[in-house]
Queue: 2 jobs
Job 1
Amino acid sequence: MTKSKSTEIASLGEFGLIDRLTSRLKRRNPSTLMGAGDDAAIIDLGEEVMLLTTDMLTEGIDFDLSYFPLKHLGYKSIVRGVNDILAMNGQPTQVVVALGVSAKISVEALDELYEGMETAAEELGVDIVGGDTTASMNGLIITITATGRAKKEDVVYRSGAKEHDLICITSNLGAAYMGLHLLEREKRVLKDVENPEPKFSGYEYLLERYLKPRARRGVLDALREEGIRPTSMIDLSDGLASDLRQICHKSQCGARIYLERIPIARQTSELAEEMHIDPVIAALNGGEDHELLFTVPLDMQEKIMRLGLVDVIGHITREESGVVLVTPDGEGIALKAQAFDR
Amino acid sequence: MTKSKSTEIASLGEFGLIDRLTSRLKRRNPSTLMGAGDDAAIIDLGEEVMLLTTDMLTEGIDFDLSYFPLKHLGYKSIVRGVNDILAMNGQPTQVVVALGVSAKISVEALDELYEGMETAAEELGVDIVGGDTTASMNGLIITITATGRAKKEDVVYRSGAKEHDLICITSNLGAAYMGLHLLEREKRVLKDVENPEPKFSGYEYLLERYLKPRARRGVLDALREEGIRPTSMIDLSDGLASDLRQICHKSQCGARIYLERIPIARQTSELAEEMHIDPVIAALNGGEDHELLFTVPLDMQEKIMRLGLVDVIGHITREESGVVLVTPDGEGIALKAQAFDR
């Protein structure tokens, strides 16, 4: 199957695989305003556009059913899908669900999964309008495809950041990553224990951030009310370093973010210390935060500060300055994304 | 995970699982005209609607990479997705692709998959507008989500069949099923052979029908030109028996189809005989035909016959008559769908 020349996917690097696969794709329908390359595709509806995005979660990679309750998994999968619509500044509306189901999954298990999905749908005001259930040889697979609507002029792209823009995030970072590490540790420690009682006390917030992330529809509504329109935006799923580099890559700009301004929750720092992990690495590269990273014009500084819903962690620079993390002593460190691993 | 009460999915029967899972889903957006229950969901756009459908294929269940060329697999996955839009009488427009990729898949293999997808997209006039690539622990997974447009009054549902309507299909049946059997046989026979040379001679048509099914966009265009509007329609994916029962279930009607009118290709009969399979079973229950099954009013009989593009295999009856296959000697056999197995 792999023929004579065989290239490992990892070797293509951060932006390589998607660019390579999508570069051959043509547009034939005038309604296709934008294809791959942002959080969602854009389909012309006249005054409005429809946003369309798809996201696959596979057992063993994206979740471990030995500690991931199905209700939460359903909830999180909807949040992940809808977040990509929010990251384009769209109003999420409909979702379709494709499931690959292995023999070990019972009807009651699927009920729980759907219950969690419907809870998230209720909170986010979206409708689950159908799907496909197929058999899977190896584990549970969930693909969520989400749609949303936006006025054309309201759509926010990854590519719109301008020099001097402020870089904002909607919550502290690294908590989901530490929640995952905690779950993995307890699984490891209690592997051969008959009635395992995992120790999560004091770290409930981290578990919640990993198992049940909240979509930030409310923050976007508040920005809209205040007349603040982001110049660029992305869903924080791969980690701040990688996602900020995406914004800079698409906007042809650089960035300076300040280490002491990156919010890290107390539980995140505490568990990181306990597990000998650098909390800054968790915040920069952990991923799965499912918060929003966006930029606003510098003259919005006062407004956005007064709103009190986001943290301003730095600003956009010229492309040649690169993407830089500034330490408290003023040193600038070039931010590298992690190796492509998914 | 399965708790105290554990119900096997198979026990819910033919229409049970989807009905159970989707019965709890609410509609919150006025733009949601129809959710689960037909080939695609329907989203209100004003005069037009957008159709939305998702379809997952998993390695080991839906395809075997040891004999399924990736180019064909890409092609077929797009056809499958787009067929659900056609089965609602919509014009397919955009597609998004979510891939789960195991470590054994090289970049060149993904290139081939995308090449096949783009070939199908070109033939069907749709745009691949993005997607998601994630890691998979176990095998390749492909989820295709397709969208399309239609005028509201043009949408054809599974539920519109009326007594006396004619039942039509767009090609002979059972060929894909026999193609799959041929591939499986040669794989089995040549399992331990060093340089295997599978014998496909004389059965190329069956392989093509399984590996590279064609979407019937052309037939629908011809019907439209002739002013023939189907009263109900479904994508023939689970087999004629099951899919006709779906139409009857949704339309609250019965059906009589005539055995001698069900078209079966010569190669299908020949291989079936060689492999001791009843060709009628292949045609009724084989599945994967990816043709269209639809009904038209009785007064369209002459028009549809003159068109010469479809076979009329029977007619719609009252619900209490059931779904019946009439043998050449006039005997009526109640059509049962196969057990739910996916």
Job 2
Amino acid sequence: MTFKIELINHKVIKNAFESISKIVNEITLTADKEGIHLRSLDKSHITFITMELNYKLFDQYQCDEPTKIAVDCTEFTKILKKCKTTDTLELTVDEDNLIILMKGDATRKFKLRQIDMEYDNPIPPQIEHPCNITIQSDLLKDYINDMSLYSEVVQFGVDEDYFIISSEGQNGEAEIKYIHGENIKEYVKSKFAIEKLQDMLKSSKFAKNTILHIGEDMPLKLIMELTTGDGELGFLLAPRLSEE
Amino acid sequence: MTFKIELINHKVIKNAFESISKIVNEITLTADKEGIHLRSLDKSHITFITMELNYKLFDQYQCDEPTKIAVDCTEFTKILKKCKTTDTLELTVDEDNLIILMKGDATRKFKLRQIDMEYDNPIPPQIEHPCNITIQSDLLKDYINDMSLYSEVVQFGVDEDYFIISSEGQNGEAEIKYIHGENIKEYVKSKFAIEKLQDMLKSSKFAKNTILHIGEDMPLKLIMELTTGDGELGFLLAPRLSEE
Amino acid sequence: MTFKIELINHKVIKNAFESISKIVNEITLTADKEGIHLRSLDKSHITFITMELNYKLFDQYQCDEPTKIAVDCTEFTKILKKCKTTDTLELTVDEDNLIILMKGDATRKFKLRQIDMEYDNPIPPQIEHPCNITIQSDLLKDYINDMSLYSEVVQFGVDEDYFIISSEGQNGEAEIKYIHGENIKEYVKSKFAIEKLQDMLKSSKFAKNTILHIGEDMPLKLIMELTTGDGELGFLLAPRLSEE
């Protein structure tokens, strides 16, 4: 057997797939000696997902040769949800399946058929953003939900003191001013689809803090990093047009 | 600025609007030196709402001249729901908007467009009821829900010892006998639409106790009063016909 | 009055009717000196329900002569749900009704019309099964839910060491191996409709443990017994065909 991992604290993976399963239908996980990697682009090319799970995160990690595991994302997420807090999660593969074992009161085995993936792992564009803002993931999630009252589009703005989240519609306007505490040299703003941000933030429990990389009418880079440094979930989101 | 109020314990307003937003679509709040007043009649003229919030209820209250604030009730309630327990709620007005500020981890500002109200604040009819019953608001809410098993109409009856809530339908009957402990001189009964009572009791957390003013085939007056005496939410509900 | 029972710990009855109301529309409860009995067969003749509640279970039990109580099962269950934890539940009958009294803050009385039952209490077939497995009711409920990922049919298998629950579909397979700890002499397997098992296990809180009587392509007998021995809820479920 060339691939076998075990994880007691499987919340990390469950949290990540809360959003991943909302954004893409099929995924290819790539496993090698370093860990497990995911790169995926949604069908409409609006959201790019990257996930890195270092081998140190796992209670047992064996991967003798690079392995690709392509599965239906919704089905995989449904199975993950069956994993109880007290279970140990084990993933292995056979020729046709990803095999998910949950070891607790009983041993529960789920075989998930692997699928043929048309495209290989895409490579995300490298973008340099002028502003980085750190904010609690659950606060950011609440703030984005606030914005959905008036519009489908939210503006992220950064000035010297504040990270400003705002939206406006026929019935009114909403504006949230968050003191960012960063050393900002360039004032920027960009607009994004609220629904896409809400999908991404379904994984807000993945990490306590979220880092936002923001530029002027540029894609948003949203990174959640485990405090141990052993895992990272990232998104790149295309901006909406700003009318002047 | 002529109008500005601040409230830490904003649950009071949130609780009141749980029912108000179910009954009327648009409201005019009238603010003066004494406090904030609301009088509103639903479109089908079945339920009359009155609300009085004394200036003492607020942590800061400034109202230099009488001010009318007309807004869409559903939109206002949606915004109020965004207010977190730890936030301080601030209301101000500009020429066109009611401005709702929530001060917590960040400062969140919502602007809600004011609307043109066709009718001014209506005046509720003055009615003298022979019986007054005091009952815990949450118990009354449960009892009304019990009644919905069999019928859309409930009868409130009062005799020497009991406040009797009853309904009957094709499948059976329900009857609740509550010892009222009041000195009752006239036995009365009236019928009401269960759905309308359920709408009113969505605000059951506004006050621990509810006072019911009941007469023979008369409108019901239902009053919830804050224990501090600084606020009151009241309803007048048209009766349903009793067949003999 | 020939029939009157009182029960403080009414959870037992509420739990039992969680599943009964999903399986049959109308029931006839038979009360005699020994206790209350229920035997009922669903319309499609797939599930047979038996319930025995010994007179010792009740805080007060009076039944001078055998009494039949036929009611709509959904309506009865709706009323039972209104019973609060702190209420005492009292059941009596008059000529036309089952009378349900809940004594707490107030006395709440529900009259449920008795109905005409076409068929009398059916008698369940006597079947001897080669294998008996005991398993925690809530675990069994979870395991059956796991199976619904892939198929509408689950297989129960028993070998020397394991009770094996499995299902398979187009997307994959699931298999749960539970160490049964029994002395098994015959290896057997049978298939059942997952939905029917889920209906039965809505009453999983009735008793901590469930005993499964399993044979080769035989009906399943599922018994939940109160630890006090004063009550039992049982089901007999027709098997699905196994293709070879």
